[in-house]
Design brief:
single chain; 175 residues; alpha+beta; six-stranded antiparallel sheet; five-stranded antiparallel sheet; 2 helices; 37% strand
């Protein structure tokens, strides 16, 4: 029995030794396929003028895997090399005010006109702030593409986007 066990161990070790020549290629492949994504929160409330689409700034990084966020460009999440498909998501809250509507848009490369653009419109209810959730479909991207969240409201004056914990902006690379 001991001889059989030793023989099997030798066979397994020989088999693994023959495969070790591919570890570097496997490590490279896994590094390229590792999760990339970012999740940001608003650090402070931001005033949104009446009837003006305004890019939201993000200052609190929950995670930033793949260097998608740069503090020097606080409105953007930028696609790194090696990413071909993503999903963009956001949750945006407005301070309490029952006049008008609230809208949230996902912009790509500074533009709201692209296939798969996601938007959300919320009509506020008395006694609460309004929260809009927006999620894109799977979007094809290239390195350097960037995404921003724009907010607009029609309350008749300026209105804040809040800095609550449920206010966030995220990108998830899926390929």
């Amino acid at each position: 029995m001991a001889l059989y066990k030793e023989s099997m161990i030798n066979k397994i070790e020989d088999d693994l030794a023959g495969r070790n020549q591919n570890w570097d290629a496997l490590d490279t492949y896994l590094a390229e396929k590792a999760f990339k994504g970012a999740l940001l929160r608003k650090g402070t409330a931001q005033s949104i003028p009446h009837n003006t689409a305004t890019a939201l700034t993000w200052t609190d990084v929950v995670y930033n895997i793949g260097n998608i966020y740069s503090a020097g460009l606080p409105t953007r999440l930028t696609i790194p090399s090696g990413v071909n498909k993503i999903i963009v998501k956001a949750s945006v809250g407005f301070q309490e005010n029952t006049t008008g509507k609230r809208e949230v848009y996902i912009y790509k490369n500074g533009n709201g006109n692209y296939n798969g653009r996601a938007t959300a419109t919320v009509i506020p209810v008395s006694g609460t702030g309004a929260i809009a959730h927006v999620v894109s479909p799977v979007l094809e991207v290239v390195a350097g593409d960037y995404f921003e969240i724009f907010a607009m409201q029609t309350s008749g004056g300026s209105l804040n986007v809040t800095d609550w914990y449920n206010i966030w902006f995220a990108i998830e690379a899926i390929e």
